[in-house]
Write a structure and sequence with these properties.
The complex is a heterodimer. Chain A is an alpha+beta fold. In chain A, the strands form two sheets. Chain A has a four-stranded antiparallel sheet. A three-stranded antiparallel sheet of chain A has the order 5-6-7. In chain A, strand 6 and strand 7 form a beta hairpin. Chain B has four domains: 159 residues, PH-domain like (Roll), CATH 2.30.29; 90 residues; 70 residues, no CATH class; 132 residues, no CATH class. In chain B, 45% of the residues lie in helices and 26% in strands. Chain B has 17 helices and 21 strands. In chain B, the strands form four sheets. Chain B has a seven-stranded antiparallel sheet. A seven-stranded antiparallel sheet of chain B has the order 14-13-12-18-17-16-15. A four-stranded antiparallel sheet of chain B has the order 1-2-3-4. In chain B, a hairpin with a 3-residue loop joins strand 2 and strand 3. In chain B, helix 8 runs antiparallel to helix 10, helix 13 runs antiparallel to helix 15 and helix 14 runs antiparallel to helix 15. Classes of the chains: A alpha+beta, B alpha+beta. Strand 4 of chain A pairs antiparallel with strand 19 of chain B.
């Protein structure tokens, strides 16, 4: 452990690896198709030379990024994701090369939402989104029961703490 | 206190009309002055369209005035508006983060003012704006808002009266202050471009034939002419600078009672700012190079609500106050904010880390120029040098300190900014470390405070022990 802090311990579903691979494949393919169309148009209509160069560079970057975000990133990300929610804090951790730890006091939580796209729905998974006044954070891929329980749990904790925060503001 | 729904002051119509004319000034100028004689083709159509639009807008303004009202209740202010689609907004007083008034010249002539109440929510309706109010109406609203914030503390009736109106004046700018401000803000330098232009005009006039080669000799020969010109210009510029400063920072006043801080300023057009002490999210201290040399500091109060538009910002304790005085005043106004001078610097090895981290900016500029403008490739060198300079400055001036419930950070180079906030004001923290940072045993620490826009303080490359301590400190309940 690099930092001497108590790290969160709960993991997210491993099914998210396949889902991320799939969505990233779709996304990258779409971008590559668009670039391909542009390249075709460029050769047909004789666009300026630098456009071609720029497009080829973009294609190159996209291929590298595709390899990374389809074959490497998803499993690392899933393995490194941890979260923990108790009465006082929401604690999140993710990332391997660049490691991120986020700590949100429960009384600063403004809203909690759950959402799922078609891929998540097939596996009965949810994303839980936690918003504060300054930003929002998403915990990906949590099983339905757990996600809904989490949502109401955060809501209850945040509600309970709300009166506290007002008292605190008065100092 | 509970009032009936009330329409805005009739002068509202005048102000709306004024702003309509101001916004469409160029259309009017173009269509009805520059093209006054042309009545053919699209110009004619444009004229019809404009007249239609203008008539419609005027009718709409009048209708709007009839339907929009405000109402003050015990806990909130209720705004109703909408000609076709009715809309009602209820703004609870306790959600108001700060309030500001601004009185421009037109307001002043008519004995009016404008007021905005900032709630600090993230949507478009975060502020309640009254563009035209009579002074009495504004006072009534402000009393309701301020009074409410006092009642919130659930104190007894007598005590409340004792504390709420116990307003003391802590600072009023004097002529000396304004003079100091005029020089510190370098407003007198604004004249130099004008001076140069005037000089070349005269030069043209006196020596129409003088060619490029003898400009220098001409300059030397006519030096005597420059002296009175220079002196006049200096006097003029100082005068202009002084007047500008008086208009902007004259009559600067800072006062406070037990609950709130009040700041007001300005001569011809005045503005004021008021914030409950308990809603101050943080304070910042700005020092530009010149202020640092003159030992001045500008202390600003950070509010979760919007704080004016650009130059109208009134959230700073006098920008040209001596540092010692500014600190003393801060301590009086916000007794639980203590500014510490001696802060912790980054360890020396971090300089090396900063210098060897990838230069993405340079890389991008270099690659871009290599592809598109190869003859300008030397610019990459400049970007690289700037990159190194900013990293060194960053290393030299970044410092931080955690004491008690406070966290204080300082960043900058030639000018610097110190940020001071309390633990319970921090909305969230993030710590992170990259592979390279791990090799140097450091990490990045980031915390966010409410403000508009959100204030994110970032401290890069802090020793990992300090980062761990910070994380544990934040996790520990105060």
């Amino acid at each position: 452990m690099y930092l001497h802090i108590t790290e969160p311990s709960r993991k997210i579903s491993s099914k998210i690896i396949r889902i991320w691979q799939m969505t990233n494949t779709i996304g990258h393919t779409a971008v590559l198709i668009i670039l391909g169309v542009l390249l075709y148009l460029s050769s047909v209509y004789q666009w300026a030379g630098w456009i071609d160069t720029a497009l080829y560079i973009l294609v190159g970057l996209m291929v590298v990024s595709a390899i990374f975000s389809i074959f490497i990133e998803p499993s690392f990300l899933q393995k490194s994701w941890r979260y923990e929610i108790d009465e006082e804090f929401v604690q999140l951790k993710h990332g391997r090369f660049n490691q991120y730890h986020t700590l949100i006091p429960m009384e600063k939580v403004e809203y909690v939402t759950t959402d799922q796209g078609p891929f998540l729905r097939r596996h009965d998974l949810y994303n839980v989104k936690i918003g504060t006044t300054t930003s929002s954070h998403t915990i990906p891929a949590i099983y339905k029961d757990e996600a809904l329980a989490l949502r109401s749990q955060i809501a209850v904790f945040a509600k309970v703490k709300d009166t506290d925060s007002e008292r605190e503001e008065e100092e | 206190m509970m009032t009936q729904p009330k329409r805005y002051h009739p002068a509202w119509l005048l102000f709306e009309l004024y702003s309509f004319i101001k916004n469409t000034f160029f259309f009017i100028l173009f269509l009805f002055v520059l093209r006054a004689g042309t009545n053919s083709g699209w110009i004619l159509w444009a004229k019809y369209a404009f007249i239609f639009f203008a008539v419609w807008t005027l009718i709409h303004i009048v209708l709007k005035w009839f339907v929009q009202t405000y109402q003050i209740t015990n806990q909130s202010i209720i705004l109703r508006e909408g000609v076709f689609v009715k809309n009602q907004r209820t703004v609870p007083f306790e959600r108001i983060q700060n309030n500001q008034t601004s009185t421009n010249f037109l307001h002043r002539m008519l004995g009016l003012t404008s007021l905005s109440l900032e709630t600090g929510t993230s949507d478009a309706q975060a502020s309640v704006k009254f563009t035209v109010l009579s002074n009495d109406e504004a006072q009534q609203i402000l009393t309701a808002v301020n009074h409410q914030n006092t009642a919130e503390t659930e104190e007894t009736e007598e005590k409340m009266e004792e504390t709420a109106y116990n307003r003391t004046l802590y600072f009023r700018s004097t002529k000396k202050d304004t003079l100091k401000a005029a020089f510190t803000s370098l407003s007198f330098l604004a004249i130099f471009p004008i001076l140069a232009a005037v000089y070349f005009q005269i030069d043209d006039f006196f020596s129409l034939e003088s060619s490029a080669e003898n400009i220098f000799f001409y300059f030397a020969d006519h030096l005597w002419m420059l002296i009175p010109l220079f002196i006049t210009a200096m006097i003029l510029s100082v005068a202009i600078g002084y007047v500008q400063t008086v208009i902007k920072y004259g009559n600067y006043e800072i006062s406070a009672d037990d609950q709130r801080i009040y700041i007001q300023k300005g001569v011809l057009s005045t503005s004021s700012f008021s914030i409950p002490k308990k809603k101050v999210q943080a304070i910042t201290i700005h020092q530009s190079l010149i202020k640092r040399m003159l030992n001045m500091a500008e202390v600003k109060l950070v509010s979760a609500g919007k704080m004016g538009d650009g130059k109208q910002e009134t959230n700073s304790l006098y920008p040209f106050m001596a540092k010692k005085e500014a600190y003393r005043l801060t301590n009086i106004l916000l007794p639980n904010y203590q500014i510490e001078e001696n802060m912790k610097r980054l360890p020396r090895k971090v300089l090396l880390l900063k210098l060897i981290s990838p230069y993405f900016g340079t890389l991008i500029v270099g690659a871009g120029l290599f592809i598109f403008q190869r003859e300008w490739i030397w610019i990459t060198g400049i970007v690289f040098l700037l990159g190194i300079a900013s990293r060194v400055l960053d290393y030299l001036f970044t410092s931080y300190l955690r004491h008690g419930d406070f966290i204080q950070t300082r960043k900058g180079g030639f000018s610097n900014e110190t940020f001071l906030t309390r633990k319970e004001r921090v909305q969230q923290i993030e710590v992170r470390h990259s592979w390279l940072q791990r090799k140097f045993n450091v990490a990045t620490l980031e915390f966010s405070n409410r403000s508009k826009p959100v204030y994110v303080s970032q401290l890069a490359d802090v020793p990992k022990e300090d980062v761990s301590d910070f994380y544990r400190w934040f996790k520990q309940k105060s």
